[in-house]
Design brief:
The protein is of the alpha/beta class. It has 2 domains: about 120 residues, Rossmann fold (3-Layer(aba) Sandwich); about 100 residues, HAD superfamily/HAD-like (Rossmann fold, 3-Layer(aba) Sandwich). The protein has a 6-stranded parallel β-sheet with strand order 5-4-1-13-14-15, sandwiched between helices. A hairpin with a 6-residue loop joins strand 10 and strand 11. Its cofactor is Mg(2+).
Length: about 260
Amino acid sequence: MVDRSNVECWLTDMDGVLVHEQAALPGAVELLAQWQRDDTPYLVLTNNSIFTARDLAARLRAGGINVPEDRLWTSALATADFLKQQLPGGSAFVIGEAGLLTALHEAGYIMTETDPDFVVVGETRNYSFDAITKAIRLIGNGARFIVTNPDATGPSADGPLPATGAIAALITKATGREPYVVGKPNPMMFRSALNKIGAHSHNTAMIGDRMDTDIVAGMEAGLHTVLVLTGISDQREIERYPFRPDEIISGVHELVRSGDEG
């Protein structure tokens, strides 16, 4: 067994680790309860920027998982935190939903279509040709280009949907400008999460189900990395990459202490 005795804080991905299609995965409820009882600092991370933390907490409760909203860290919150550090009190033209708009407002940002400091693109189910055109023109006029996450597609009951990365690629093609991407696999998202809970990389672990986002970002941020096989990665997927997680487990139920399993 890999020694994780120095791990005092945890970061964990949400989809494929704790939930699958909004249903709790085995051990998820027990692990979160264990962390709560032990007063263990932790955050649940997601690249989804559509929902506010309050909305996500409600959605998780509907699936039987209790995560307080202050224990959720989204790419929208990480983006707002990054922009607040870069330019306090700045302005942005935003393509996104309530999660991103709320996070930026709470960070002190002004939403504007007139000479914004940044164009910020996040997840939405209502991409507008007019809004994308406006974003392209504003970037051409000097606005800095920020994207909440790189995911090109998102899941739905009917199959993949175009997501933030796909729209960002369209804007890049039209402007010749590459965006700065805040969410996973950028270790920036993990560093801001560590700051939020007062943790340090040397005593924090990251649980994820994707080699190309969770594990590589955790590794680059200096975290102990744990890959679960309840999401999209399997042994064949693992072998594609030149790096390895510190641990590979079948699911988060393996992290629940004996006697804490319900």
